[in-house]
Amino acid sequence: MQEKKLHSQGKILFFNKEYIAEFVYGGIDGAITTFAVVAGAEGANLGISVVVILGLANLIADGFSMSVGNFFSTKAERDSFEKHRQVEYWEIENLRDKEIEEIREIYAAKGFKGELLEQVIEVIISDKDVWVDTMMKEELEMTKSDKAPYKTAAVTFFSFLAVGSVPLLSYFFAGADMSIEKPELFVYSCILTGVALAIVGSFKSIVAEKNIFIGIMETLLLGGLAALLAYFVGDVLEQLFR
After folding, report:
1. Residues 68, 120: Cα–Cα separation, whole Å
2. What are the transmembrane regions (predicted)?
């Protein structure tokens, strides 16, 4: 048990492993949506200040929206678990024989027979908490998440802002070097976004336990397609309203 606890509290770089999924998906969403805004603005040939304003507005609004959605999703999952848990306690108190029979059916299906089966049942029903935990896992297939809703929301918001700001970096620093042409800024944004997506894609592979190269390529492909669509939509709209 102690070994499992230490493993769950381990870190990858400076991230707690249990929250790395929120960092990964918040970061991917942030980078792709912001880069899509940049690409769309570039396709519409909008000015640098407009790109920055649209990008920042999207970054903050979408990041907040995603973190709020994550908060309520995690909270609803925990609330649902607790509700079903209380139902199981009630059933143990009021429908004891029925619940014992359900335990018997569960472990009989696992191959327990005769005296051994009865011993297992006796051990489980001798402790209400163990009994309820067993019913939650074996009957309802529900396990309690240790993730706090406010932490998942905070990690999602942070990653969305941190990674999502990368496509805007070249435009932020454009004022420091006026010799840089606008098309060059977009090229720099593409390169920076590609690097950011590759890094986050590698984390995604760790979460999904997939090949890192495949995870990186999937993330880059998704980001590239989103940017390509946004660029051409912006270009078409700019031609229509010119």
Report:
1. 44
2. 20-41, 47-72, 152-173, 185-203, 212-233
- Cβ distance 216 to 205 under 8 Å? yes
Distance CA 155, CA 25 (A): 10
Q: Is 28 exposed, middle or buried (0-12, 13-18, 19+ CB in 10 A)?
A: buried
CA 223, CA 238: separation in Å to the nearest integer? 22
Report the predicted TM-score, pTM, of the whole model to 2 decimal places.
0.74
d(Cα 107, Cα 119) in Å, to the nearest integer? 11
**CA torsion, points 221, 225, 226, 230, in degrees to nearest 10?**
150
User: Does residue 67 contact residue 153 with C-beta atoms inside 8 Å?
Assistant: yes
Q: Please give the helix or strand (H or E) that residue 11 lies within, else none.
A: strand 11-12
CB contact at 8 A, 24 and 218: no
Token pair of 27, please? 């970061």
1, 133, 209 from 148: Cα distances, Å: 21, 20, 23
Residue of 130, 78, 79, 83 whose CA lies nearest to 103: 130
Inter-residue contact 163 to 27 (CB < 8 Å): yes
- Burial (CB < 10 A; 0-12, 13-18, 19+), residue 70, is buried
